[in-house]
């Protein structure tokens, strides 16, 4: 098994574990707790990944440093799956009545798709 395959497996596993934990404990611990925990975890993981990239670009650091980068990305994915990923979708049901839910559920991903399509060719190529 290559390192890329192992990284993909760990990333998918962290998303599944985070989704199972958050869906089973969302109402018990509260949405605010999961959002704050998720945001703090993502900030810490991105900071660690930034330090890793700084060492990686300069070519310094010990050989085990590549596992720090992988583990920070896996933990970032786990943190996202715990709160920032599922909580906004749960809040849609509380903000809108039943007639508006279908339109609202489409508008979020639909607007995301339109923004990505509109700015993809304009912002990435200078």
UniProtKB/TrEMBL annotation:
The keyword S-adenosyl-L-methionine is assigned to this record: no
Pfam families: Sugar_tr
Keyword Membrane listed: yes
Molecular function GO terms recorded: hexose transmembrane transporter activity
Bilayer topology term: Multi-pass membrane protein
A Gene Ontology cellular-component term: membrane
Positions of the Major facilitator superfamily (MFS) profile domain: 1-126
Compartments, record wording: Membrane
SUPFAM superfamilies: MFS general substrate transporter (SSF103473)
Keywords: Membrane, Transmembrane, Transmembrane helix, Transport
Transmembrane segments: 6-26, 33-52, 64-82
Name of the molecule in the record: Major facilitator superfamily (MFS) profile domain-containing protein
Organism: Oikopleura dioica
């Amino acid at each position: 098994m290559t390192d890329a395959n192992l990284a993909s497996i760990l990333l998918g596993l962290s998303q599944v574990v985070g989704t199972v934990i958050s869906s089973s404990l969302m109402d018990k611990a509260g949405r605010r707790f999961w959002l704050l925990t998720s945001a703090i975890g993502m900030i810490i993981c991105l900071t660690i990944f930034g330090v890793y990239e700084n060492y990686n670009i300069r070519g310094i650091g010990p050989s085990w440093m590549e596992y720090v980068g992988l583990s920070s990305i896996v933990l970032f994915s786990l943190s996202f799956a715990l709160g920032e990923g599922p909580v906004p979708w749960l809040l849609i049901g509380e903000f809108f009545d039943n007639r508006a839910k279908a339109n609202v559920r489409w508008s979020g991903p639909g607007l995301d798709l339109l923004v990505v399509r509109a700015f993809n060719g304009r912002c990435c190529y200078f």
